[in-house]
Amino acid sequence: MKKPKMLLILLLVLPWLSFPLLGRKTIIRFLPATIFISVISKILYTIGKKRKWWLFYTKVNPKISGDTAFVFGPFFLSALWILKFTYSRFPLYLITNIIVHIIFDVWGLKLLKRTRIASLVRINPFQHFLFLQFRALLLYSIQLLFEKIRKNKNPLLNKISQ
Asked: How many structural domains comprise the chain?
């Protein structure tokens, strides 16, 4: 197995080791919005691939693309963790995402390019940063919507969350 493929598999699997540490209440509360934003992210990554915004050189296997490994690996779990620690404190949420996205765009993208996993093609790191921030704001908005629905319309969800 090639090193880029092994690294991509590790990026998909290792974040899931932290999933049980989130706690049942956190998972029940934030999982719907995280799944929703992950599906939206996968669609956006597919559009970006067709428009050649970025290129993933490596696949997990022939049926699982490199972007899928990122969306349902580190991005998925980091969304859950960031929501757990910052939800309902929007400035902290925003600052946390800005820091994480800057780190990813400055050092993470260089590492991905050096290891031949992925690289940006028609967008620069700042545009990718804006893309990630848009996705983070969308996630927070979706979570707000789910919280509003949970409180107003579905008493069953209120009982589960408590």
From this structure: 1
Q: Supply the pTM of this predicted model.
A: 0.88
Residue 68's contacts (CB-CB under 8 Å, 6 or more residues apart) are: 42, 60
pLDDT digits (tens, 9 = 90+) for 95-154: 999 999 999 999 999 999 999 999 999 999 999 999 999 999 999 999 999 999 888 875
| Domain around 110 | 3-13+32-147
